[in-house]
Amino acid sequence: MTPHRVFIVGHEGTTGLRIHERLSDRKDIELLATADENRKNVEAIKVVAKKADIVFLCLPDAASKDIMAVIGDLPCKVIDTSTAFRTDSNWAYGFPELGTNYKLDIATKKHIANPGCHASGMIACIAPLVKAGLVPVDYPFTITSLTGYSGGGKKMIGQYESSPKDYFLYAPRQYGLGQEHKHLPEVQHVCGLSEAPIFMPIVDDYYSGMEVTVGIHSRLCHKPICIDKVQQTLEDFYKDSTIV
Length: 244
Hints:
The chain is α/β, with parallel strands linked by helices. Helices cover 33% and strands 17% of the residues. The chain is built from 8 helices and 10 strands. The protein has a 6-stranded parallel β-sheet, sandwiched between helices. The longest helix is centred in the middle third of the chain and has 15 residues, at 117-131. The two termini are 31 Å apart.
């Protein structure tokens, strides 16, 4: 069997390193790369992308858009990990557990937007309840999400793993409270909400892992709702999933 050729653009960053780590030992995958001095050279990236079956873009939003302007017409499958294309209907949204149409899009479309970390947890909780009609699309969600520091990238990892580190890093810290978090448009778009949730992300002194909490007031719902009903709705929605 011929190995699939995979090219990770931005393999030196936190996300790229993790993808490289997970794929590097697989015998069915051949990892491609540019020379180190050409890792930001768009034309050099295009040359390697022409040889690839799958390209991962692990870049900031603006850089992903610049690269897509050059490689977007190539036959390779592109999986983008930034927020640049997550609300673009021309792109597949990489959350197959949300339904058959998502699976079909991922299988047939060339370009796939990888879901955001906080967004994955929020959408996993909210989307089934909205689709079942248990909560209305105009429900005023308030959501907290506790996360490890690795999602903040190299700079934040360096802050938390420095010795000695600032005393305030030992306790959970809220951030991004201006309701302009980059994952909110994604959550609103995928869940079909008329308003974005109020979102309170919290970073804590551990490397990775996330706990998302979505509170629901039954008096604001259009249908009778209780804990057992929510539990059963989620179980039914994800009954065919081996991950959720």
